[in-house]
Amino acid sequence: CLWELFCSLNQKANIQFVLPKQQEQYFMSELIENFEGIIGKMSRVDVEKANAREIRDKEMILGAIRRSEGGAAELNRRVLDHLREWFTTLGLSAVEQIGTERSESSIQLLNRMGNLLHSQGKYDESVRLSQMSLRMSREMFGVDHYHLVAALNNVGLALQLQDKNDEAFPFFQESLRIAEKHRGNDQTDLDSATTLHNMAELLKSQGKYNESLPLFKRSLAINERLRGLDHPSVAVTLNKMGDSLKSQGKYSEAFDAYQRSLNIRVNALGVDHPDV
Predict the structure, then answer these.
(1) DSSP per residue over 183-240, as a string?
(2) Are 276 and 265 in contact (CB under 8 A)?
(3) Residue 214: predicted pLDDT
(4) Greater confidence, 168 or 119?
(5) Residue 176 in contact with residue 191, Cβ under 8 Å?
(6) Which residue among 19, 140, 184, 209 is buried most deeply as judged by most CB within 10 Å?
(7) Are 189 and 226 in contact (CB under 8 A)?
């Protein structure tokens, strides 16, 4: 179907992804249980790795793709855009099915969808879902439960991305305070790493490079310990650390951070991937 997909996108046709009912129900379950795994698989989509029954058909299709404007990298980007929109639509449908149901799985889905939406620039919707998660978490578990960590961070990040830094920082501080109380739980530690990264990014945007760098390093250490040295989250933090180091005139250290970040992304995604 790669040829049909390529032609449809070139003709600006409407692309729809449809799952059989049984698979859709399974997918909805996976949204809660394996959200990051699904996101990771989507990020590894690469049209160059598609197969065909006949080798000559594959060579013909890939040749046409490579000769098109932007080549395989541009087609990868466009396919990913459509996949993300489809994924978001399914995720929001799952959120609407939650209604007034209060459960840990509902809270996790709200947090993860809030995170996905703010990565797409849909900040108002991101804040709405994160605040739903906050209310649900406080009602179910009280004001210091670890479920609040991700929701507080998501609200803070959505505000930060709207340049509302003064409003955002207290959400990050409260998120980190609660995370520190639950240190030792892997998921809470990962949420803590995300909050540290976002606090550091906010400080960096204000020119407070000396204050941002220790937070980036703490975030990096947690991600390396729990996710591994070559995880994409490690690459993101290394790249941001490089920015802070460069702004302080520490060019050699910045180069090392940038180089390691690039190597991780190339190894994980390939040299032609749009995120590289």
Answers:
(1) TT-HHHHHHHHHHHHHHHHHHHHTT-HHHHHHHHHHHHHHHHHHH-TT-HHHHHHHHH
(2) yes
(3) 94
(4) 168
(5) no
(6) 209
(7) yes
